[in-house]
Amino acid sequence: MDEPTTDMDAWLASLATTLGVDPLADDQVMELLGVARDIAHGVERRATPLAAFLLGAATQRRIGHGATAPEAFADALIELQTTLPPPVPPTD
């Protein structure tokens, strides 16, 4: 991740350091925010942090089985996305 540009970026970088993990790449941040939105609006808002925890656990499990961190994250994210309900079309 490049130099933190917002308070959120700085906090996330600090959290990653505190937890002893690599910071999120910019594209991972955007993907996570997008899937969090989809969960909050398509499933239930309260499910969002729980799904994020499970996504992290699934990513770590894949890393433990030999995947690289980016591959593990991408694969777990794809699997999470398959569980989301289809978006509701806008009503006009």
Give a short summary of the structure.
This protein has a domain at 40-82.
Query: Describe the biggest sheet?
Result: none
How many β-strand stretches? 0
What is the structural class?
Answer: mainly alpha
* Secondary-structure element series: HHHH
Helix amount, in percent? 55-70%
* Mean pLDDT metric: 91
* Rg: 14 Å
Indicate the overall shape. Answer: globular
Low-confidence stretches: none
Percent strand equals under 5%
The DSSP helix count reads 4
Terminal residue distance: 41 Å
Characteristics:
92 residues; mainly alpha; 4 helices; globular
Could you explain the architecture of this structure?
Helices cover 67% and strands 0% of the residues. The protein has a domain at 40-82. It is built from 4 helices and no strands. With 92 residues, it is an all-alpha fold. The mean pLDDT is 91.
